[in-house]
Amino acid sequence: MATKHEQILQYIEGLDIGHKISVRQIARELGVSEGTAYRAIKDAESQGLVSTVERVGTVRIEKKHRSQIERLTFAEVVNIVDGHVLGGRSGLHKTLNRFVIGAMKLEAMMRYVEPGNLLIVGNRDNVHRISLERGAAVLITGGFDATEEVKALADQLELPVISCSYDTFTVAAMINRAIYDRLIKKEILLVEDMLSPDHPPEYLRLDEPVSRFHQLVQETGHSRYPVVDDAGRLHGIVTAKDVVGHDSEEMIERVMTKNPITVTPKTSLAAAAHEMVWEGIELLPVVNSQHHLIGVISRQDVIKSLQYMQKQPQVGETINDLIFRGFEEVRERNGGIAFRGTVTPQMTDPLGTLGTGVLTGLLTEAAYRLLRRHHRGDMVADNFTVYMLKPVQLESEIEVVPRLIDMGRKFGKVDVEVFHNGQVAAKALVTAQMIER
């Protein structure tokens, strides 16, 4: 039987897109406490089923597929720019295709305004009205209001009119930053990306005998299974090693390994792979927030998915990419490589010296780039030890020199030094685990 939490989630999932909900309404209609309703709504928000907008409320939105993750809903735009909705609240669940900055004459501006767009403009009442008539929502900058005619039209067409106190340039930068962050997230594979709803996991129940394990092995060819109770909650893992020497009538509950390591659908595949290698396990159960089993992933599945990810185009730069953008690779006389660059203002701390976080990024990225010359695959840091740190001033020229110490099939060890004016400014040892492509 489903728990109250699950019943609320099912209820929310069954609501029409754009439906507005509240804690009190959920508590009253489903006969649960407001605390239970609040926790379920927050869980639904983390799952992408609803979006909460300040001064508006919580709205049922369409759950986005990974291919559409970079597209924002108008409800999310309200939160990004800390705005308030003047009209068209019922359209907050809709997704914007692109945003247009209204910094030109009306005739020229309307060439760019299309259905599904978001027009960012100041206090130009006529532009607000025409934009809505063309099927585009409006974001008014500078904290200005809209006319009653525009508000009524927005309600009628279900197109939001939003007002915020920021200027046009700042608003455009904030929205662009949010889209850019989503592009980076889009290329990071999560556990949920490799779970197939068409192939539910094979599992055993607590009250089943060991003979059922042997039967399942014959049917599936696998040798590891999660163990759940009648409600579907995970309690353990049972493997061929666990059942050796036990009578066929003994209960699974008595031979299983309790409290296994688990992951959630939002865990990154890289983190799951690292967990498997570090702990020496072949199978990870995937559970939801209520610890119910929703799938399993094997080490082979994870590696295959990471291999696939490497074939996909890069669509966003991470902090390490941005840090290394200004560095050039040079060959040393001994055949090694080094990376030379200048400390920019973005790389410094408030005192004007190279930030420790940035320095860590430089050291690890240099180690990874050296290892990739010997190993065509991905890697994850296993150990990072810093032996020396000296302050490096703004606009100083530095040289990052990685040297390979040891290399195996599944690991690599690199010594990395940072030189400034011929002197060692930082020194670290980086050990990484390899992920085969």
TrEMBL record:
Listed InterPro entries: CBS_dom, CBS_dom_sf, Diverse_CBS-Domain, DRTGG, HotDog_dom_sf, Ser_kin/Pase_Hpr-like_N_sf, Thioestr_dom, WH-like_DNA-bd_sf
Gene3D superfamilies: CBS-domain, Hotdog Thioesterase, HprK N-terminal domain-like, Winged helix-like DNA-binding domain superfamily/Winged helix DNA-binding domain
Gene expressing this chain: ytoI
Name of the protein: CBS domain-containing protein
SUPFAM superfamilies in alphabetical order: CBS-domain pair, HprK N-terminal domain-like, Thioesterase/thiol ester dehydrase-isomerase, Winged helix' DNA-binding domain
CBS domain sequence ranges: 195-254, 256-312
Keywords: CBS domain
Keyword Oxidoreductase annotated: no
